[in-house]
Amino acid sequence: MAKITPMMQQYFEIKENYKHCLLFFRLGDFYEMFFEDALIASKELEITLTGKDWGQEERAPMCGVPFHSADGYIARLVEKGYKVAICEQVEDPKLAKGIVKRDVVRVITPGTVLDNAVLDERKNNYILAVYSSQAGYGIAACDVSTGEFQTTEFMSIQAANKILDEIARFSPAEVICNEAFLNNPLAKEIQGKFNYYFNDIDSRMFDFATAKNTILKHFHVQTLDGFGLNKKLAAVAAAGGLLWYLLETQKNNLDHISTVKYYTTGDFMLLDVSSRRNLELTETMREKNRKGSLLWVLDKTQTAMGARLLRKWVEQPLLSAKEIQKRLDGVEELYTDLFLREEIKDILRSMYDFERIMSRVIFQSANARDLWALKNSIENLPQLKHILTRCKSPYLMELCQKLDSLENIHSLIEQAIVEDPPFSVREGGMIKQGFHAELDTYTQAKEKGTTWIQQMEDEEREKTGIKNLKIRYNKVFGYYIEITKSNIKDAPLHYIRKQTLANCERYITPELNQLAEVILGSEEKIVTVEYQIFTEIRNAVAAEVERIQYCAYIVSVVDALQSFAEVAQSMNYVKPVVDEGDIISVTAGRHPVVEKMIQGQFIPNDIYLDKEETRLAIITGPNMAGKSTYMRQTALIVLMAQIGCFVPAQAAHIGIVDRIFTRVGASDDLSAGQSTFMVEMSEVANILNNATEKSLLILDEIGRGTSTFDGLSIAWAVLEYIADEKQIGAKTLFATHYHELSELEGKLSGVKNYCIAVQEMGEDIIFLRKIKRGGADHSYGVQVAKLAGLPPKVIRRSGQILKQLNAADITKKAKKIAVEAQEQAEEAAKQIDMFSIKENQMIDELSKLDVMAMTPIEALQTLFELQKKAKGM
């Protein structure tokens, strides 16, 4: 180490504390990386790998990026899953004695990134903490970019499944956990399902006493009672562990995280991983695209804040009829008053994402443009408040009353920041003239200095007779006199040559140097003072973070409500009746996504489910006829109603459901070593173990992944279990190709048969897309295969084989009838008077029959003859 250069010694000392990070080491105008960090960064960023002398024979591998454009490079590394430690110069190099002091000011991870280039503005960027103990689990989630922080705990037997469901809901960018959870089989299951890497942090930070102290200290409180965390041991452990991790990586810049909210899953409708995927709430199943999802249909928000809130609403349907009604009434008013809605939209369009701007303000990374954007957004709040005063619905009136106009913040930024500020905060040009007296003094000196330079240039031209003589400036040489090559012979002797270029010479004079010192001194002071003023303004804004965040929330609610109203009007949706009852009744319901995708006439269908008469609907019909669409649209209409949105129907009455379960489609889970059928049975098991009589079940083709008799048996037993009110008794739509299940109507209480209407046209079929009472007789598989485009030869052969199998099936049935008839006749024969000659003759005839050798027609004919003889006796 004695031979290593002092700068590299400093590097190694800092790197030792950030071994798992790529260290961006500030050297002048560049962030440099060395050794393994340089090898990784040069490959991932495709930048040149060089070397640096460090006191050893071999040069240290090195690469670097300019500090002013580092955000883009950091974003690319974070997107690839790396952590980046930002090491800055923490003292002025001009005042440093020896090596400039440096320290890490922030660690950027996938869950703590603030760069807009990385973040999806319409989606929260969560970091999640999972705490595991023998008693249960705790979860805490935070969006550092907005300041949202929440926690909960699960202490029940089914806690593991709930952890999976919550992770699916939050879809975090990063997950941390304690060692106990890392060793839990659930961690491996989550890694397989979601491809997450778990950061195992110091488990002592999850210790209850330590975690509690971390929370109390950060929020400056004496007790946890105000957060609803009293006796919530697992939730406190998770929240405290996450908060410690954030404080360590963000270096205490977390003032915008002003509270922690305790929530329970009982506040919202629970949606498991499969249901979220199958219903395609926020993305499609196959391509993972936003287009084609329910969110794509409903999101007509005008702000990024509103878009994020609307996404939360879609993922967390309400269970309170009162809260649902509040939203519905607000949507109804905006739906009926077009002018009101358009005025609100016009205001919202001009608002920036000031929720995330405030995060950058807290982290002191916001520049003058960010503050100007914040000012422009706040500028619209008084007008928005005035518009909302016209509202009559309770929810919108409540929002209007709580909306803060933030005039003092607007006034401060308006008076201080110029209209079009520069990107950098270190080069001046941000502060308005007249805002700060000292700055104005320096500015005047700079302006006069410009005049002095112009006067000197005019004087030198006159003295030398060189008409194109110019006085210029750059950062390297300062001010200098520039004379073209053709006029060098006329340069005065007292001019001191400074630099020779291809087409000119550059000179200085004592007079010019003296003047430059005055001018440049004022420019340097202007930059210094402007930065100090800007920092004070930014800190003043940061002090109002809670007020600004709450205004951002109100704006997002108004935006989400107007979005629902906009979609309702454009798509002809209707306001549903939502109550605590047990009826789901929809007249002429439509699938919101399919209807928008096809942009044509969607065939609507009714649905009626209740607790007594029609609790379970068995739906039969061919593939592609619309069974899955019908069932999914029912689930989506219920979900839309419970998020406070109008629904695609002529009328709808929705009794609140606690959960929506779906089992649709087939897929392998190769990562978990599970076959298609195993995945299907696992999902069915989850439904049967967790559904209640208040749940809505959407089941499609249960039992199709195994042999016919096994599958039919399983499907039959599942139906019986669901229909039994002592077991579950949930409202259910059950699609199947097992026509035998239609026999359950009349045998099981609340079971009704429905089918998709199909019109036969010779060997072809037409899907009518209408649901009707009764069961289907055929599956029309060959016809569907023809529509799918199978080669004609395959279709013809399929038809031939189908006829043979059907004929064989009929033969078996006829022979079965004949055997049964023979058995019945033999049994009857035993009762015949043995002394009757005719009776004995009939017995002889029956005993001589070879039933298995008969054709169905022969068997029936023989049975008919025997019957005539018996009647004639």
Automatic annotation (TrEMBL):
The family database entries (Gene3D superfamilies) matched by this protein are listed as: 1.10.1420.10, DNA repair protein MutS, domain I, MutS, connector domain, P-loop containing nucleotide triphosphate hydrolases
Q: What is this protein called?
A: DNA mismatch repair protein MutS
The similarity comment for this entry is: Belongs to the DNA mismatch repair MutS family.
What molecular function terms (GO) are annotated for this protein?
A: ATP binding; ATP-dependent DNA damage sensor activity; damaged DNA binding; mismatched DNA binding
Ranges for the DNA mismatch repair proteins mutS family domain? 695-711
> What CDD domains has UniProt attached to this entry?
ABC_MutS1
Q: What NCBIfam families has UniProt attached to this entry?
A: mutS1 (TIGR01070), PRK05399.1 (NF003810)
Q: Which keywords appear in this protein's UniProt record, sorted alphabetically? A: ATP-binding, Coiled coil, DNA damage, DNA repair, DNA-binding, Nucleotide-binding
Some GO term, biological process aspect, for this entry: which one? Answer: mismatch repair
Binding locations of ATP: 621-628
- Which Gene Ontology terms of cellular component type are present? cytosol
Q: Which InterPro entries match?
A: DNA_mismatch_repair_MutS (IPR005748), DNA_mismatch_repair_MutS-lik_N (IPR007695), DNA_mismatch_repair_MutS/MSH (IPR017261), DNA_mismatch_repair_MutS_C (IPR000432), DNA_mismatch_repair_MutS_clamp (IPR007861), DNA_mismatch_repair_MutS_core (IPR007696), DNA_mismatch_repair_MutS_N (IPR016151), DNA_mismatch_repair_MutS_sf (IPR036187)
Annotated coiled-coil positions are: 811-838
What does this protein's UniProt record list under function? Answer: This protein is involved in the repair of mismatches in DNA. It is possible that it carries out the mismatch recognition step. This protein has a weak ATPase activity.
